[in-house]
Amino acid sequence: MTDTIRSSFVDAAAALAPLVQASAQESERSRRLAVPLVEAMAQAGLFRLWIPRVIGGEEVDPMTLVRVVEEISRADGAAGWCMAIGGIYGVFGGYLEKDAAREIYGSDPLVRTAGALRPFGTAGVVEGGYRVTGRWPLGSGCQHSGWMIGNCRIFDGDQPRLHPDGTPVMRFMLFPTAQCEILDTWHSIGLRGTGSHDYAIADAFVPSARSLSFREPSVEQGPLYAFPTIALFGAALAAVPLGIARHAIDILVGLVGRKIASRSRKLLREDSLVQADLGRAEALLGSGRAFLYETLGEAWQAISAGRALSVAERAKLWLASTHAANTAKQATELMFGAGGSASVDVSCGLERCVRDVHAAVQHLALAPANYQMAGEAYLGADMRSTPLLFSDDRNEARSLSPVQ
């Protein structure tokens, strides 16, 4: 694992584990993170890791946030997911005009942003900005965030604005959460504590400066903002299943030291099938995790040196995130099976691990279809029309100063 990881933030995340674990039941019951936990995460600076330094953020390398998300997720998957979303969206500060970035990300050291990336809104062009209307699903963390993000199709009057290739022009809009209506829609099998409700806004004015597109050059010039942005998001989300799987292994190891196997009347830790399942789980988790961090580190070094990533390197980032998440899911399922009848009891914790890991890997960024996409890229297919690889089709070959 690269030595650029800022261990102080990882240590801060690990120190929050007792509070994360103590808050998990309340978060599950109320379907949102406990407010004291969110405040503690913010006070530790964990939501500022990808915010630009010029407006008071940390602007750390990708691996640091991924490790922080993994650590929080090891204590509770829902908290880890909200950590991922809140941390990820700090990167928007590198794309906004400087005054808007300072207004949103620089004025409040505890700022949190949330929202959805699918283009379920419309933005009509008016003088100075846009009139925005939309309803977006899956706004994880919306109830504890001060600003929301909504992806919108741009309209000139009644006509959608189009790119030269005929695809619709879209922009992300940022608006105060207080302008939104949060709709109670989050009733889920897993990650219940994320508060991933729908949110809506109607005919609200959003200044042009509070909008952005990943197809445009970033305002900030550091390598974090030259990284393929959606690939950054995928890596941070993949850390959630990694942490959940480690939690499942921790639970299983504790369980087998005290549970008697019905078929042998021995401690479960002495059962050969349990031992084999644990070995497989460690191998699955370790290999997927290593691939993710290795791939992230290689991409970070290339971009920090001023080199744009090839199609195959972009595809490898998606492959690594998808593989890490799905091997983590397999490891979690093995631990649930190894725990026998104890696994189904809610007091055990393994059933929540299974529910949460399955909810996490349903995200498009981690879906098994990404394996095929990577295979196509490795076989030399033209991938320019593939949104996950080129949704941020800006001039990534612009000159960058190597990180010293």
What would you say this structure looks like, in words?
The protein is an alpha+beta fold and 404 residues long. The protein folds into 2 domains: 2-212, Butyryl-CoA Dehydrogenase, subunit A, domain 2; 226-379, Up-down Bundle (Butyryl-CoA Dehydrogenase, subunit A, domain 3). Helix content is 45%, strand content 15%. The protein is built from 12 helices and 8 strands. Helix 4 (62-75) runs antiparallel to helix 5, helix 7 packs antiparallel against helix 8 and helix 9 (311-338) packs antiparallel against helix 11 (369-378). The protein is globular, with a radius of gyration of 21 Å. Pfam families: Acyl-CoA_dh_2, Acyl-CoA_dh_N. GO terms for molecular function: acyl-CoA dehydrogenase activity; flavin adenine dinucleotide binding. This is Alkylation response protein AidB-like acyl-CoA dehydrogenase.
Give the overall shape.
Answer: globular
Indicate the CATH architecture of the largest domain. Answer: Beta Barrel
Q: Would you report the number of β strands?
A: 8
Helix content: 40-55%
Integer-rounded radius of gyration: 21 Å
Number of domains: 2
Strand content: 5-15%
Secondary-structure topology with pairs:
Elements: H1 7-15, H2 17-30, H3 35-43, H4 62-75, H5 77-88, H6 98-106, E1 113-126, E2 129-139, E3 147-156, E4 159-160, E5 170-176, E6 181-183, E7 197-207, E8 211-212, H7 229-256, H8 272-304, H9 311-338, H10 350-360, H11 369-378, H12 387-390
Parallel strand pairs: 1-3
Antiparallel strand pairs: 1-2, 2-7, 3-4, 3-5, 5-8, 6-7
GO molecular function: acyl-CoA dehydrogenase activity; flavin adenine dinucleotide binding
Domain Acyl-CoA dehydrogenase C-terminal: 236-366
Pfam families: Acyl-CoA_dh_2, Acyl-CoA_dh_N
